[in-house]
Each structure stands twice: as structure tokens, then as C-alpha cells.
Amino acid sequence: MILTPTMTGIASPDPLQHAFKVKSAPHAGRSGSRPVFLKSEQWQQWWQQPSQATERALYIHIPFCRKRCTFCNFFENGTNPQRINRYMQRLTEQLKIAADTPLVQSQPFNTVYVGGGTPTDISSDEVKLLGEAISRFPLIENAEVTLEGRLNGFDDDKWHNATANGFNRFSFGVQSFDTQVRQAAGRFDDKDFLLNRLNQLSQHPSASIVIDLIFGLPGQTLDIWQQDLQAVIDSGVHGVDLYQLIGLSGTRIDHAREKGKILGTALSEYQADSQARANMYASGANHFESQNWQRLSSCHWRRDSRERSVYNSLAKSGIEILPFGAGAGGSIHGHGCMNARDLKQWHLAHDEASTALETASVQAVQAPSFPVQVPVQVPGMLMSPNPSASLDAIFKRGLDGGRLELNLLSSDMTQHLIPLFSAWQTNGLATLHKNSLALTLAGRFWNVNMQTGLFEYLAENPIAATQETTSQSLAS
Ligand SMILES: C[S@@+](CC[C@H](N)C(=O)[O-])C[C@H]1O[C@@H](n2cnc3c(N)ncnc32)[C@H](O)[C@@H]1O
Ligand code: SF4
Predict the structure, then answer these.
(1) What is the pLDDT of residues 304-345, one digit of tens each?
(2) Distances from the Cα of 436 to the Cαs of 15, 214, 269, in angstroms?
(3) Is the minimum distance from the CB of 175 to ligand 1 under 6 angstroms?
(4) Chain centroid to CA 291: how far?
(5) Looking at the whole model, is its pTM more than 0.85?
(6) Which stretches make up the Radical SAM core domain (predicted)?
(7) Where are the domains of the chain?
């Protein structure tokens, strides 16, 4: 059996700080998939076929931001009202077309996520337009519908239009409440504005307000981080995500480091190393859990049951996600797909399809068998179905949630993984019970490295395909 430190971590008196050197990547994954090409006729057919999914989601991407924050590489296009309006008109038109297709109508949707970029940068009228387009989809009762973004520019008008048009969850990036840390990171507002606004919005009788914080930002000491954690409680929000800063290439921080410069003031020179970040994670987990907040995943906590985090937890289970918009990712009929980010190409595909449709509608008068209209096939990447998708979803959801239920795996698979699980136990990352593997606090901090390590272990030590089945697929 091949076991390496990148799979197991290393033995250390302090696994939280030293089990691995650095967080390997934002997410772990493996894929036995390969790119596939889908002909236009097949694309048409896909939208006529009912879905086989039992749970599914809709993901809508809004690729605009007012400013490029120093730490982030999600910035795609600058905010410009005309440019956004043109995009929103096209996008909502496509959503309406999709909503009438057999693929969409065949099964209800559990959750919708409007992500970005900064979706809250769209105008109040566009929020309404988007909410109306989403309401044409068959949603389960009380489906979670999230609008992502930031508090800056999200005025009362937008908020009222959002809550009146079906949005019931709001995920705002705060990153840090500390005014100086924020300025160095290229954020607009100060701590008082954020606290007041979050307090106001959290008074809503049913909407869930959640925020993202990052630990490890330039200038963010442990002391500042502890004030950030207390500010979360004081803000009245219903949930929080704590993300470790990942040194993404192409960010402004990355460019400045290459040139040996500091962004912001001399205070921003401080940057927590991996060990200091481990302590920041631990103080975050202890802070919320000591105040009876419930942990829903390794990085997400909720104040009470109003916050459900349905999209995030289902997305990790590999469910069907219909993607809309330039840069949106998802999966259709078991095929992973990623729409290209390039806005020009995205518009071009729609313009060409409109012209073709005009010609076709003239023909349809002469030959009325023209098929039901389907959304435009935009440039992007499409993958063949991942043969181990259901198994990978069990690993990802289990390790991310802090507990892997072993009875979801076949007994052959559990036996095959015991050397890895035992090494994790020896290294202080997990505790092996009869029917489950529970991650320690250190394991939860390093869970993405553990997921990556597990996939590497399976690649180096393949198990016969017949034994890879989950106990669910054995039962069915
Ligand atoms: C797609 S961004 C949208 C956030 C929103 N536009 C805003 O400005 O707050 C979603 C989240 O990714 C996280 N994120 C972005 N860059 C990151 C990085 N380098 N490391 C860790 N988390 C990051 C941030 O917490 C952010 O709120
Ligand atoms: S944090 Fe938000 S606003 Fe800033 S660049 Fe990233 S997506 Fe855009």
C-alpha cells in the first residue's frame, strides 16, 4: 500500500498547526471524466428529456464587480449599468425559455443560488426581473433562494425588491470588519456601516442573512480576528462562513508580492502564516460553538435553524445543477459543465441564435414541426459523466461535514481505506469509530488536504471497480 505524507499528513504534537504545510487548494476533486462535444441537435434533445435527479438546483452567475479586491480572483467584468442591463435582459430571457422546457418542468428545484462576482450590483428593477424569471421554475415549497454580494450599494429599494420577489437568503462578503484591514483589501465601507446595516437586515422575520469572513488577510492579527468574530455575533446575522485566505494567482496581493510591494499601510505588512491561521480557525470554531452556534460544515456555522445552507450542502453531494450565465458551472444529465467566462463570446452566441431563430420562425410557418425553443448553447466545457460521482460525493460531504459515515461505503472500500484512516488517527486528524470516521478540530481545519490525500490514495492504490460501489448502489 502506498502512503505518503501528502495523503496522511505528518505526526506532530500539534496537528492543528503542523499536520500539513499549507492548504493545498480551495477545493479537492478528482474526475474520471473527459471533455465531450455535444452537437446542437443533442443539446436540443437534452432539454426535451426529463431529469433523473431526485434533488437539484439552479445556479445563475452575475459576473460583475465595482472594484477588484486585493485578495480575490473572481473579478470578471467592471460594473457598468448599460453592460449589466444588456446581460440581465439576455439572462432573464434565457431563464424564461428554459423554464418551459420538459427538462426543467420534470422535477422540482430544491434551491437556487445567484452568485458572482457581485449580484447585488444589479439594479433594483433587475433584481425584480430576476426574481420573476426564477419564479417560473418549479421550486419546492420553501425552497432556499440565495442572492450573493456585498452590502455596499445594496440599498433599501433592492432589498425590498429582493424579498418581495422570492429571495429568502442573502450571502454578503464582509471579509473583515476591521476598517484598516478592509481598506488595505480594497473594500469600501467601514465597520460601523456594516454593523448597522447587518443589524437592520437581520431583523427581517424570515430571511436568512449570512456573511463571509476571511482569516489571514494582510494586517489582520489574531487580536483583530477575535474582534471580527465578536462583530459577527453583534451584527445579528444568522450564519457565517470562515475562509482561510488562499494565495490565488492573478490577485492584486499576488502581483504586489512579486514586485516586493505592500498594499495599504505599513500595518498591512503583517500576514498570518499557516500556523497563525490554524489558531485563527480554532478561535473561530471555539467562539461560535461556545455561544451555541451549530457547525454545518468545516467552515460554516449558524445561529439558529433559519439558516439552512441548502445550496452549499447539496452542491457537495454532486446533485444536478442547471447553470445560467457567463462563467456559471453545474451539471446536466450527469455531465459536468462550465460556461466560458468571456462576456463577448456569451453575447455573440445569443445574437447568432436570435438571428437563426428569426429565419427558423419563417420556416416554421411553412413547416410547423419546429421543436420547442430551448436555451442557447453557449461556449464552454462539457465533461463526460464522472463514473465515481456518487462515491466522491460521499467522501466530500462527509469530510467537509466533519464525519464520514462508513456504512455509506461498501465494506470492501472501508477495508481498503483503513490504512489511510489509521494514519489520520495516528496523526491527530480523525478518530475511527465502528461506523464512522470523525474529524478532530485539526482534521476539520485540514479537511481539503485530507480530501485531496484520499483521492491521491485511491489513484495510487486502485481498488477493483466492482468494489468501488457505495452501499447505496449495492442495495439498489
Ligand atoms: C465570489 S466571492 C463574492 C463576494 C462578493 N462579491 C463580495 O465582494 O463580498 C465569494 C467569497 O469568496 C471568498 N474569497 C474570495 N477570494 C478568496 C481567497 N483568495 N481566499 C479565500 N476566500 C476567498 C470571499 O470570502 C468571498 O466573500
Ligand atoms: S470579493 Fe467580490 S467584489 Fe471583490 S473582486 Fe471578489 S467577487 Fe468582486
Answers:
(1) 999 999 999 999 888 999 999 999 999 999 999 999 999 999
(2) 21, 30, 43
(3) yes
(4) 26
(5) yes
(6) 50-285
(7) 5-27+388-469, 40-324
